[in-house]
Amino acid sequence: MYTQVTLNIYDVEGRNLNTIFQGVKQADNHIIEWNAEGYPSGVYFVKLDAGEFTQTQKLMLVK
Predict the structure, then answer these.
(1) What angle do CA 47, 40, 58 make, to 5 degrees?
(2) CA–CA separation, 42 vs 62, rounded Å?
(3) Quick one: how far is CA 26 from the chain centroid?
(4) Which of 7, 20, 38, 46 has the fewest beta carbons closer than 10 A?
(5) Domain boundary assignment for the chain
(6) At 62, phi and psi to the nearest 5?
(7) How far from each other are the two terminal CA atoms of the chain, in whole angstroms?
(8) Fold type of domain 2-61
């Protein structure tokens, strides 16, 4: 089954900093890397929207 997928990075104030992926993916395990060069150390959030499924996780970027 294929579905529309969007993967975004947000800062602690809720601003969308980067859309890492936007497109159609098949339901499966995937690896998508975020090039955090140019972003300072701190807390970020990654939000996955896939069809009707949404999940948000907190990230700690340490340089």
Answers:
(1) 30
(2) 7
(3) 17
(4) 38
(5) 2-61
(6) -120, 120
(7) 38
(8) Immunoglobulin-like (2.60.40)
